[in-house]
Amino acid sequence: MRKALLWASTNPFLAERLPRMRFVKRATSRFMPGESWEEALTEADRLSTRGMGTLVTLLGENLDSIDQADAVLDEYLGVLQDVSDAGVDLEISVKLTQLGLDFGPEVAQERLSRLAEATQSLVWIDMESSDYVDVTLEIFRNVMSTNRNLGLCLQSYLRRTEDDLDNLLPLDPSIRLVKGAYNETREVAYPDKREVDDHYFTLSRTLLKARLNGGMARPVIATHDTRMIESVNRMAVELGADKDDYEFAMLYGIERQEQNRLVTSGHVVRVLISYGSSWFPWYMRRLAERPANCLLYTSPSPRDRG
Ligand code: FDA
User: Fold this and answer.
1) How far is it, in rounded angstroms, from Cα 39 to Cα 144?
2) What's this model's pTM, rounded to 2 decimal places?
3) How many Å apart are CA 41 and CA 287, to the nearest integer?
4) Residues 277/35, Cβ–Cβ less than 8 Å
5) Mutate to test the pocket of ligand 1, among 183, 289, 301, 305 (most ligand atoms within 8 A of CB)
6) Which of 23, 34, 73, 209 is deepest in the core (most CB within 10 A)?
7) Distance 184 CA to ligand 1 centre (A)
8) What confidence tens digit (pLDDT) does each residue in 55-79 have?
9) Residues within 6 Å of ligand 1 by CB
10) Which atom of ligand 1 approaches the CA of 250 most closely?
11) Average pLDDT for residues 130-151, to the nearest whole number?
């Protein structure tokens, strides 16, 4: 099921037709407050009153022209301006392919630099499929050499991530750790979920230790896995970390009760809100993470309410 949904996420025929169907549109409302930036900002404002910061991402992936990359850049520059005017605790999370990576690393790098210059807060870089990892790391390093307003996502399902993280530590980076959402071969990614989880835990330990040794600006544990969250919290106590030494991040609409519970118990939580009309591949990846969502599309589980 997971593989079929991930296959569907890259299928242009389905991407063209399914989003027009009303039941599919209704289903996505569970995972996004709306297609417009205004709806995302309103929700970010509401979440801030509940003690949560937000991350915002404009949906959309590979582009057909550099003009589209400029349109994405302009959209994000507008977002950053509105955020500064509204004074909301909101950061953006961008895909380098949306900033024109397929037209050359320099195209994406230049636009990423513009975004980093336009804000005092962090610009997060999403990690896409494994073919993009090398170039994403290279661009991250290049932009970090002149502007440190950057954070990077790393994926625990990739076999290479432990080495990548070790190589990044001298930069004192901000790292968001996820399990990974793309369809990868067993040559590059662990096929077994237990291995992905074990690797996630090991990497979390590296992030926390680095933080305590002064070599990690912001470690972010981005998962809805409540058992993992508990294990990381336990490990943090064992290592002597305070609650504000690390953060949690979750997707909008998923494990809301856990999001509230963490905030109430004094943890730092950021919720990622997606907006925009190109939601099909992203939505299919959310279904692939939990195929039961295909059945539950109109009624979230109790843990996702709240
Ligand atoms: P896991 O898949 O083990 O799920 C644990 C539990 O969480 C499930 O049993 C279920 O209860 C709940 N859950 C998980 N997904 C759910 C869903 N879709 N619907 C309902 N319940 C669900 N990936 C990537 O490759 N590049 C990136 O840049 C990012 N960025 C990113 C940012 C943030 C803030 C988050 C939270 C996630 C990402 N991801 C990502 C996605 C990530 O790789 C991963 O696919 C999802 O977070 C799901 O994995 P979990 O860690 O939640 O664990």
Assistant:
1) 32
2) 0.90
3) 25
4) yes
5) 289
6) 73
7) 16
8) 999 988 668 899 999 999 999 999 9
9) 126-127, 153, 155, 178-182, 222-225, 249-251, 254-255, 272, 286, 289-290, 293
10) 36
11) 97
Q: Residues 74-99: pLDDT tens digits?
A: 999 999 999 999 989 999 999 999 99
Query: How far away, in angstroms, is 298 Cα from ligand 1 center?
Result: 19
Distance CA 160, CA 169 (A): 15
DSSP 3-state of 228? helix
pLDDT digits (tens, 9 = 90+) for 240-263: 999 999 999 999 999 999 999 999
- Alpha-carbon gap, residue 259 to 215, rounded angstroms: 27
pLDDT band at 296 (very low <50, low <70, confident <90, very high): very low
Q: What number of CA atoms fall less than 13 Å from residue 305's CA on the CB side?
A: 6
Ligand 1 closest atom vs CA 200:
51
* Pocket perturbation via mutation, ligand 1, pick of 5, 124, 223, 304 by most ligand atoms within 8 A of CB: 223
**Two tokens, residue 9:** 């996420």
Which ligand 1 atom minimizes the distance to the CA of 126?
28
The encoded tokens of residue 7 equal: 């296959």
Rounded Cα distance, 38 and 281, in Å: 22
